[in-house]
Amino acid sequence: MALDPNTIAALAAHLEDAELQRREVTKITDDHPDMDWADAYAIQDAIRLRKQARGTRITGLKMGLTSVAKMRQMGVTEPIHGFITDYGAVADGGEIAIDELIHPKIEAEIAFVLKRPLAGPGVHIGDVLAATDIIVPAVEVIDSRYKDFKFDLKSVIADNTSSARYVVGGRARSVAGIDLKHLGVVLEKNGRILTTSAGASVLGHPAASVAMLANMLGAKGREVPADTLILTGGVTEAFLVERGDHINVRYEHLGSVSMHFV
Ligand code: 0L1
Ligand code: MG
């Protein structure tokens, strides 16, 4: 690691304060160009510990930048992982206050819950499908703390991969009989279709995203736990939302997820 523990702690406080005070900041690699990947995840871990110390419950994990559309949109080449929180959960059909966020964007995702933990190396799609309890449709609301969503991978990892809110809805299903690769998704804003996509947009198969997460965490001596929500990443690029927007996402086999930005 290139950064000392005091700098890690200071950067975690800086980014978490920016989140909680809905304040934009410049990317942290501007002032710390030598920080490495371990530093980036150490800052994210320190943010998680700060939240847990205040009583926040970590409700799940997320993969980010798992679709070609998303990587192209952000000009990056590799998936990353982060965590989601109890206060980030919004009920299906619920309201999301724009004033609590900086510049939210939405992403349609397919979420998994495992019935047993998985840890790499060597986890593959088959392992994930065998270990999956349910899949559910979800919409992630991301909100980079960086001005104009301008960042590099290390800065966005440290910023908990822009995690902000998420909505789970529709129907929970087992994976049996569902062709996740070709599962169709239609994303609507204010009654108009913004885009359509399919499960294969996520690393070729959404279960590949969970496998990658298990392998990334396994390399650090960690695991993907059972009974926790795993957001596998957007099946489309992310779309900016504004006050008044109604979002509805329809998923083949899984029902729909909706929310209203107020
Ligand atoms: O969930 C995501 O794919 C977000 C990853 C971070 C990049 C971004 O803010 O768009
Ligand atoms: Mg996402």
Automatic annotation (TrEMBL):
GO molecular function: 2-oxopent-4-enoate hydratase activity; 4-oxalocrotonate decarboxylase activity
Gene Ontology CC: cytoplasm
InterPro entries per record: 4-oxalocrotonate_decarboxylase (IPR017630), Fumarylacetoacetase-like_C (IPR011234), Fumarylacetoacetase_C_sf (IPR036663), Hydratase-Decarb/MhpD_sf (IPR050772)
Enzyme kind, highest EC tier: lyase
Keyword Zinc-finger carried by entry: no
Record-listed E.C. numbers: 4.1.1.77
Domain (Fumarylacetoacetase-like C-terminal): residue spans on this chain: 92-259
UniProt xrefs under Pfam families: FAA_hydrolase (PF01557)
Key words of the record: Lyase
Name this protein carries in UniProt: 2-oxo-3-hexenedioate decarboxylase
Organism encoding this protein: Solimonas marina
Lineage: Bacteria, Pseudomonadati, Pseudomonadota, Gammaproteobacteria, Nevskiales
Gene: dmpH
